[in-house]
Amino acid sequence: MTNEIQSIAIDKFVPHPGNPNRMSKANFAKLFRNIERTGRYEPLVVRPCPADQVEGRPGYFQIINGHHRWQALSELGYEAADAVVWDVDDEQVNILLATLNRLGGADILEKKLALLKKLGEQMPIKDLAKLLPQTAKQIERLTSLKMPTAPSDAKVFASAMVFFLTAEQLPIVEDALFLAALNSGQSRDRKAAAAKAAALTEIAMVFLERGPSKFGGG
Predict the structure, then answer these.
(1) N or C end of the chain: smaller count of CB under 10 Å?
(2) Three-state DSSP class for 5?
(3) pLDDT tens digits, residue range 75-96?
């Protein structure tokens, strides 16, 4: 396995048939615009393509990570793309496919706000929204907020609740949780999981107090 970046002809890449990652049209458009605007992108991660997928033709590479970048580069007319070639077997590839697009950290809220404000000073919000996951309204709302401080709550035992969000739903829910956390005066020092749980409870309480009809329910 090597992390040396190579330039490989765009038509020599083959998408992995088991790739589980899908990107919404809106997010793909933003990825497309970012690459078109800057010419910069994270190198693809590939492996020498199994012979049965390219009818024995040598010199092809199967994409492990970067399917959407490859698609964007192809549509932009790139003749080659930067990639790192890993020598990994099917089992390792399956593990990578299940993790590379899902493992990640969480934003530090104060730094995220500061970054959004700085970007908002450098370009119009409507243009910024074409490049970032947030909509223009979300960016305006976030950049107008200030982080309050408050003492953290006592530790309590908790129960797990697991659910899944689409790519479109995730930024909306995250912003709603963030706003609810600010509204309830939660400490910025609280752990992310605890803060999100308290914020979700805050939203649920508002819903219960106002009733479903206030939110478009029956």
Answers:
(1) C
(2) strand
(3) 999 999 999 999 998 888 888 8
Helix (H) or strand (E) segment spanning residue 14: strand 13-15
The two tokens of residue 161 are 């609740």
State which amino acid sits at residue 44: L
Q: Tell me the per-residue pLDDT of 159-177, one tens digit each, with 9 for 90 and over.
A: 556 666 777 777 788 778 7
H/E segment holding residue 163: none
- Per-domain residue ranges of the chain: 5-99, 106-147, 148-218
DSSP code at position 54: T
Cβ(147)–Cβ(184) below 8 Å: no
Residues 6+ apart with CB under 8 A from 124: none
Q: Give strand pairing partners of 14.
A: 62
pLDDT, mean over the chain:
79
139, 117 contact by CB (below 8 A): no
CA dihedral 197, 145, 104, 199 (to 10 degrees): 10
CATH code at 5-99:
3.90.1530.10
CA–CA distance, 98 with 100 (Å, rounded to integer) = 6
Per-residue confidence (pLDDT) for residue 73, from 0 to 100: 97
Q: Which SS3 state, helix, strand or coil, does residue 133 take?
A: coil
pTM: 0.61
**More confident site: 184 or 133:** 133
CA distance 27 to 68: 10
Helix (H, G, I), strand (E, B) or coil at 34: helix
